[in-house]
């Protein structure tokens, strides 16, 4: 019978973290100085975040732009970040709808103007014999 107690998850996580840090530090010597410093700062921030309670870890985000870091509230920026693409999508759909309506109106206007300025009176287009005339004319033109 196995009477060994499995190690606690916290101890296992700590061992894994130490092994990972050692593995990352091995390749750190070959990197340029500025990249090594940014990695060092990122590691320090990760350790500081590990020490925070889980509620505070989820509430803040680290944003890195052009080498500068800033702590920003996650919920505010997440909401703005999710609303802006939605607004862009709605604006795009409205623009497409307006453009299609304009294209349809232009098409109908061209058909109406061709119908009204043509040689035949509008009543001729409703005559059943006119469809046969057009079909016969099309068959004769293809010969």
- Average per-residue pLDDT, rounded, comes to 76
Element string (H = helix, E = strand)? HHHEEHH
- Strand arrangement, largest sheet? 1-2
- The computed structural class is mainly alpha
Instruction: Give helix % range.
Output: over 70%
Which of globular, elongated, flat, extended, rod-shaped describes the shape?
rod-shaped
Uncertain runs are: 1-5
How large is the share of residues in beta strands? 5-15%
Sheet having the most strands: 2 strands, antiparallel
Spatial extent as radius of gyration: 36 Å
- Per DSSP, the total helix count is 5
For the record, give the distance between the C-alpha atoms at the N and C termini, rounded to a whole number: 96 Å
What's the number of extended β-strand segments? 2
Description:
With 143 residues, this protein is mainly alpha-helical. The chain has a domain of 64 residues. The protein has 5 helices and 2 strands; from the N terminus they run H-H-H-E-E-H-H. Strand 1 and strand 2 form a beta hairpin. The N terminus is likely disordered.
């Amino acid at each position: 019978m196995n009477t060994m107690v499995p190690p606690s998850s916290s101890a296992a996580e700590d061992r894994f973290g130490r092994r990972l840090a050692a593995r990352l530090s091995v390749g750190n010597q070959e990197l340029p100085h500025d990249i090594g410093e940014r990695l060092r700062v990122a590691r320090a921030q990760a350790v500081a975040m590990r020490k925070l309670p889980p509620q505070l870890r989820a509430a803040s985000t680290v944003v890195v732009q052009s080498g500068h870091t800033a702590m920003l509230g996650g919920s505010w920026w997440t909401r703005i970040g999710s609303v802006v693409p939605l607004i862009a999508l709605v604006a795009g759909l409205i623009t497409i709808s307006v453009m299609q309506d304009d294209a349809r109106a232009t098409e109908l206007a061209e058909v109406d103007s061709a119908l009204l300025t043509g040689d035949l009176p509008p009543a001729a287009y409703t005559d059943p014999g006119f469809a046969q005339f057009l079909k016969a004319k099309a068959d004769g033109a293809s010969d």
